[in-house]
Amino acid sequence: MNIKRILKRLIEEKFSLAFIFTRLIMKLGVSPPFVFKTNGIKLKLHPSAITMELFRKKYSIDYDKFIIDRFVCENSICIDVGANIGHLSILMAKKAKNGIVIAIEPQFRIFKFMIENICINNVNNIFPLNAAIDEIKGVKKFYSLANADDQSSFVINMHKHSNFKEEKVFAIRLDDLLQAFSFSKVDFLKIDVEGAELFVLKSLGEFIKNVKYIWFEFIEENYKKFNYTKKEIFEFLTLNEFSLFFLNDKKKIQPIVDITEIKDDFMGNLLAVNNKYKNYIYSNPCAE
pTM value? Predict the structure, then answer.
């Protein structure tokens, strides 16, 4: 145990009781019988990175909520790839009251937390799925980070991370999944898979033409772990007749004409819009 490092962190956090409490929960791996509210949803106080950050108000989902509120409609079919504890899936489900949300999370421990969160929010239109999404289906190695389970992935930097657990997960293609559900379209697709975003998109195959809106994590540092660049994902979406948009600090949706407009150190999400639905993004997407 590095006492100096712990003391430095405590000083940085100004000996916050909330910080100490959440660190104890993470260290012990226990789930106290508490529920807290954030962004209009309830969450159980589970020992997970995102739960702790939301509880301490150190992690914001304001942009996610803005996009969900705008582009998810009452009858929407939504897919949440990398659903984690289900916080965004629940927001989608509350908006798509007569629709459905497929919430996909590969980490079994986090998946169980998601199930509990779904139950306490009394939403019955979420279908949870414990699996990974990839271009190539099959059983794969997946690395879960002990103190940063929101950064778990198929690929890990073992020089940077030493405290991780390797588990086997079953990976499926999105087009196979959507065919199994007999979906003819997807209204809203959210992707947060720590760098494997391009492979999730490729797993759609020809079905990508039937997806309206894609809200995906855009971090080139993560893409590099999988040996591709931001230019490649931009070109893939453009080739499949999607236009990219950026949500600025004032929550204004701005078009991206050239990928060089996005700085290399950008860490956030972009919105990809099927060109057939571009005319709706500045009006009312739910009025189409």
Answer: 0.92
